[in-house]
Amino acid sequence: QSMDSTLHYIHNDSDLSTNSSFSPEEERKSKVQDVVPQALLDQYLSMTDPSRAQTVDTEIAKHCAYSLPGVALTLGRQNWHCLKDTYETLASDMQWKVRRTLAFSIHELAVILGDQLTAGDLVPVFNGFLKDLDEVRIGVLKHLHDFLKLLHVDKRREYLYQLQEFLVTDNSRNWRFRAELAEQLILLLDLYSARDIYDYLRPIAFSLCADKVSSVRWISYKLVSEMVKKLYMASTPTFVVDLMNELVEKFCRCHKWSGRQTFVFICQ
After folding, report:
1. Interhelix angle for 134-142 vs 175-188, to 10°?
2. What is 31-150's CATH topology?
3. Exposed, middle or buried, 135 (CB in 10 Å: 0-12/13-18/19+)?
4. pLDDT tens-digit series, residues 101-146
5. Tens-place pLDDT, residues 1-31
């Protein structure tokens, strides 16, 4: 009976409301909930204790981070206050493997928490991951579209200025990073206006088309062709005309054969 009532509570429709919000009084509540036995939750939360990591298992914080989205889903967004401090502690953990684990799952946590809690509690953590090591940044890059689509339009536009930073990596030979960026930009075309695509995504796409690694260039050709389609469907024809002229000028009339070949591949 206890298990049935718990499952009903977890999957209750009210738990999935996107308009969930908390008053400051509720935020200050101690980490008490009635979904799972409190002792079990307390044991989980204690895993981030530094002394425990040193004496029990150095990997314990990583396992804790790996399980956190599942714990958040089980408790429901109305009990996020129980996990918030632990999440922030893990997000600033000294071990990059812990931060990397959270970076790969932050988009899933955003779905669980809804837009208000995501904007207030996850966006600052997300911004921190964007400036982290490449091993951590790749986590948010691989699911960049999944996370940004959950944000409000105004908040989403703020990240247009930061997309350029993904072209710079700790190791210039890390070409998979740039390939992943090209893949994500294809998905991001649906989230932004024609002007934003032309002003911010176009320069990045042209830079990727001239990459030293062929695998990156191949994905970039697809990116540019999708960009042409997207701008062609826009209400303002100016953007697609300017883009086509730039393609002809930069690649079709390029004095290098590789540039002219790029134009042919994009047309293909």
Report:
1. 30
2. Leucine-rich Repeat Variant (1.25.10)
3. middle
4. 999 999 999 999 998 999 999 999 999 999 999 999 999 999 999 9
5. 554 544 444 444 444 444 445 554 554 355 7
